[in-house]
Amino acid sequence: MSNESERNTHEMVEFRYSCPVCLSPRLKMVTGMCQHRMCTGCLYNREDGTLKTSMSKCPTCQKPAVFPLKRPDIPEDNILIQKMLGVTQCPNTNCFTELWEWELSDHLKKCSHAPVKIATLRRKSPRSSRSMSVLSPTNNETKIFQHRTRSQRLAKQWETVSNTHLRK
Fold this sequence. Notes:
Elements: H1 3-17, E1 29-31, E2 37-39, H2 40-43, H3 76-85, E3 87-89, E4 98-100, H4 104-110, E5 117-124, E6 131-136, H5 146-167
Antiparallel strand pairs: 1-2, 3-4, 5-6
Keywords: Metal-binding, Zinc, Zinc-finger
Organism: Limulus polyphemus (Atlantic horseshoe crab)
InterPro entries: Znf_RING, Znf_RING/FYVE/PHD, Znf_RING_CS
């Protein structure tokens, strides 16, 4: 597959299978009666699992009451399908970022949950002839993921638009 056709395939998959609200790929997606798919994080309240009031209509087609009022259990085969499409989770401990497989290498370079790296210094230990190893934390804490900030900004814009339409 050429780079251009591979890029086109990735863009098509990203468009079709990412949540249209947060613009991120998710393993746990809910399909509404209108056949649009949203992630459970955008649809449901974390505390009680009820549908968010801003999601009383489908954000894509504006049809009312298309998603269940309570967060459903997502079948394992649906999660497996998302994984087969290329959705993966960061392998670093305590990093729960879900992203496309083709974005994983860039994410790992910036992940703030990356394990501490061991750097070997060139100078010799005063008591021995061996090089000293010291722990040096990665500089990733100061870096912010561009795709996450863009997704958050667009999600806030979408929420503002949705709330405006709900008031009318």
